[in-house]
Amino acid sequence: TRIKSWNHAAHELFGYLPEEAIGQRLQDLLSSRPVYSDVVEYQEQFTEYGKWQGEFAHRHKDGSEIITWVSVSMLHDDQNMPIGFVSVQHDITPRKIFEDRLETLVQERTRELEIANRALVAGIQRYSTLVQHFPNGIVGLVNTDLQFEIMGGSGVLNLTYADGELTGRRLGDFMPEDIAQRDEPSLKAALEGETRVQVVEHE
Question: CA-CA distances (angstroms) from residue 153 to 129, 130, 156, 159?
Fold first, then answer.
């Protein structure tokens, strides 16, 4: 099918003047192709239903690629025989560029998070090993609520708690209140990035 009508909007969208486009085959002029299905599938659906909607990629006169949302319908003569088609197209190239950039950023961020998560897991595993074998004292890892995620060391045995029983607890849950009030500010300071050394002895 050859182009029989080419309006000003088509000229603005694709760069070709009417005298350059009329009489040409659309495929030859624009190298048009559906984005999410192959040409054969598109042609079969259009032939069967007489209409089609979806995204098409085209080549602009300057060589750049344009993505449009296409609504195309079959034209018939008085005997209901197909004689051509009419196509309405909306330029969605800026939106597609934005979506592609966003998808790239999401993929990059996902990879960064996966790498960071693997490093975090490896760090926790190493820290857990250190905690379990810490001599003559107690070592713990607290979250932002000052709840212990990990606690261990030989000193835990003196607290008469079973392995893992202190996970999720705050310092005041198993230490005297005065000791908790004294030591929790150091934990808060450490979470805020402050380096603080505090040597304490608990009987």
Answer: 10, 8, 6, 11
